[in-house]
Design a protein that fits this description.
By secondary structure, this protein is α+β, with helices and mostly antiparallel strands. Helices cover 52% and strands 17% of the residues.
């Protein structure tokens, strides 16, 4: 999640970087994390189901970016409940 907060700084090697509209390619996240593609995909899927990231499919590639509304909602819940 922290890497996706500043994608241009954390993923400078992403070709055709359109971080604002589509996000970061799952392959770039996998390389930076040093984990298998299936592990990264599972983690991102969990974050997507929690509404913390959104996914965009472009051809065979999937791109992820932070979902600011979902993060704000979670923050409000944490601040009011905990």
């Amino acid at each position: 999640m922290n890497w996706l907060k500043e994608p241009a700084e954390n993923f400078p090697d992403q070709a055709n970087a359109d971080f604002e509209n589509i996000g970061v390619c799952v392959g770039q996240i996998q390389i930076k994390a040093g984990l298998s593609q299936s592990t990264i995909s599972e983690y991102l899927s969990i974050l997507q189901r929690a509404d913390l990231v959104s996914a965009t499919r472009v051809g065979q590639w999937t791109y992820y970016k932070r979902n600011k509304e979902g993060i704000e909602k979670l923050s409000k819940i944490i601040n009011s409940e905990l």
